[in-house]
Structure formats: C-alpha cells, structure tokens
Specification:
Helices cover 29% and strands 12% of the residues. The chain has 358 residues and is α/β, with parallel strands linked by helices. The chain has two domains: 194 residues, 3-Layer(aba) Sandwich (Rossmann fold), CATH 3.40.50; 97 residues, no CATH class. Strands 5-4-3-2-1-6-8-7 form an eight-stranded mixed β-sheet. Helix 1 packs across helix 5 and helix 7 crosses helix 8. The N terminus is likely disordered. It binds iron/sulfur cluster.
C-alpha cells in the first residue's frame, strides 16, 4: 500500500499532481532535468540493460553514477565469500568505458558478517565518496544473533540478504549530503533499477515509474525501471548493439547473475561451482557446519553438489570455457576484456530464471 506522502502541502515545482503519494505511478521529467541519475548496477544483465536504455534515451552521461552494493564489503573491508570475484572489476571496466564514476555501498563485514553475527547489532553501513569512506553507524535495533542463512523465500523479512544489500543504498541516499538540495532547490534524482516482470515473483506488480520513498523537502527521487517489460533476448540484443561482453558468469551457463553461490542456486549450479571453484564450495560447507544450518532446507551444499550435473550448466564443449572460467574468477577485468567487437552470445542467454530469486 502506498505510504502517505509526508509533505503533501508543498509543491513539486514540476508537472506532478500535488497529491502524488509514495509508491504511486508518476510521469518522469525530461531526462536532462534531473541533477543526478543513479543507476544501480549489480553487473547482471538487467542492470546493464537499464544503463544501455538510458544511453539510448540520450541521458547526459556526466550526470550518471553507477552504484553497486558490495555483498562482500569493499576496500579494506572486503572479504570474499558470496560474490563473483570479477564482479567489481567488471563494473569498474564499465565505468571506465563509458566515462561514469562507480560508487560503492556496503555493510560492515558484508553478507558474511551478517550471517555470522552473534550477540551484536547489524553491521554499520559504509559508502565511498571519492577517496573517503563514510560510516553510517547502526543506531537502532537490539543485540541479537543471526547465524542462519537467508531463507529461500520471496518474503524479504526472512530472506534477509536482499534487503540487507538494498538497504545500504537507501541509507546512503538518505544520508549523503551530495544527494540533498535546499528547500528552494530540491535535488532532482532519477533512481534507476533493473527489475523485469518476466523474472517472476513480486516483480510482476512493480511499477515502471514511481515516486521513491526517499523523497523529501530537499530531494525529489523518481524511481524508473526502464527494462521492466523487456524480454531476456532484448537485453542480450543491447549487449550486442553496444559491443559489450555480459558478465562472464553468463558464459558459464548461468541465466541469472548476482551472488556466486546465491541461496537459490540449483544442485546443478552447485556442481558447476564445485567444478570451477571447489575452495568456494568448501567454504560454504564449512560455514554450514559451523553454524549448524544449511542454505537449503533439505540438503547440505555437499549433498546438492553430489546430485548435480556439471554439464547441465557449464558449456563443457565450448573451446573458450577456460577463458570464461578465468575471467569469472579473476579480480581484474579490463576495458579490453569488456569490449566485444564480435559479439558471442553467452550460454546463459538460453537459460531461464533457474537458480535466481523469486
Ligand atoms: S543473489 Fe541470492 S544470495 Fe545474493 S542477495 Fe540475492 S537472493 Fe541473496
């Protein structure tokens, strides 16, 4: 249900009806009227597709910034557990190629820190502004213990990984002075995310354009989902058009890319992880034992690996497979790696939503 807009009495100063409520459909401003365009980029195809759509709509790239919520923390705080090693370097390469800055937000200790949390508060939020790292301390809540994997559920209250990730961006938006204007001149922000209805679940009900909950008297935030009704094939066509290589995990046969070892990974996908990165699977298995809780309600990670079939995911016969594996597991990814003059359609482009969140 829409939340009543806190300040119904002041004018938007724009062509919006004054009774627009948060979570209600809106018309966007002409793109050039926004002061900042924040594109949320996971490195997955839909967030990249949103970025391409903005460019095709003539966005001024000098106003665009790519925001990435780092699931394993960032900088000195980084500890590899849940993310594909190449994801951050891939995003950096996208930023360099298109001349747009990349900004990171994360929680102390990343998803792993939250998973292992014991008798403490949930981790502080951090964000990067230039060379500076700013901490937004956790001030609410109670001391508690997590030590449970996120539930494999559409309910974000128990599938805590997704909300934990997204909240770091929302808190940054609400607290970063750069994202606020004045009472006379509100900062106009376009907040762009890459959900698609075809991926199912709650996305079917998402609006394409709505007033974002962080709108205030000093900040107008319009939320746009530019690929909401696009098909998977249309998204990969954009990569071909822009001559950009999709995230390497698509070339390993994954149809959805976000965390490596997503809680929704199928047995075949766990078998594929075991094939390309056995040490990562071993780490998950150790943690399952340590906290006495498995990701899957029925099977342990190692039991899933045992019943999975590598060839149901990895394109075993692809002569370029060693290159895709090496790119996916590398912490460096150059602009040369990113640009694909002769586009190769990834094996994952022919897979559905298997192994992704509902
Ligand atoms: S990709 Fe999977 S594990 Fe990562 S935040 Fe989303 S649902 Fe959780």
């Amino acid at each position: 249900m829409a939340i009543q807009y806190e300040q119904m009495m002041f004018s938007f100063g724009l062509d919006q009806p004054q009774n627009v409520q948060k979570g209600e459909p809106i018309e966007l401003l002409p793109l050039h009227e926004y002061d900042v365009v924040v594109v949320h980029i996971s490195a997955g195809k839909d967030s990249m597709g949103s970025f391409f759509q903005l460019i095709k709509n003539g966005v001024d790239l000098s106003k665009v910034e790519l925001w990435h919520q780092a699931v394993d923390g960032h900088g000195e705080e980084h500890q590899e557990f849940w993310d594909w090693p190449c994801t951050e370097p891939y995003i950096e390469a996208v930023g360099k190629k298109f001349g747009v800055p990349v900004y990171y937000q994360w929680r102390r200790g990343g998803l792993y820190g939250e998973l292992m949390r014991e008798n403490s508060y949930t981790g502080d939020v951090f964000y990067k502004e230039g060379e500076q790292t700013i901490c937004l301390p956790t001030t609410k809540g109670t001391l508690s213990t997590r030590r449970k994997f996120p539930a494999q559920s559409a309910d974000l209250r128990i599938r805590w990984c997704s909300s934990y990730k997204v909240d770091s961006a929302k808190r940054t938006l609400g607290n970063n002075p750069r994202m606020s204007g004045t009472l006379e001149h509100r900062k106009k922000i376009l907040w762009v995310t890459g959900e698609r209805r075809a991926e199912g679940g709650n996305r079917a009900n998402y609006l394409e354009k709505e007033l974002h909950g962080s709108t205030s008297r000093r900040r107008l935030v319009h939320h746009w989902r530019p690929v909401i009704d696009m098909k998977q094939a249309d998204i990969f066509a954009l990569f071909r058009e822009f001559k950009i290589m999709p995230h390497p995990a698509y070339y390993l046969g994954f149809g959805r890319v976000s965390c490596m070892g997503c809680i929704f990974s199928t047995a075949h996908q766990w078998a594929a992880y075991q094939y390309i990165a056995p040490e990562r699977v071993a780490r998950f298995a150790e943690v399952e034992k340590e906290i006495d809780h498995t990701i899957d309600v029925k099977l342990s990670i190692l039991e899933k690996v045992a019943i999975g079939s590598v060839s149901k995911v990895l394109p075993i016969g692809d002569p370029l497979l060693p290159r895709w594996v090496s790119l996916a597991l590398s912490r460096s990814f150059s602009v040369d790696d990113l640009v694909m003059e002769d586009f190769i359609m990834p094996a994952g482009a022919f897979r559905g939503c298997e192994g992704g969140s509902p």
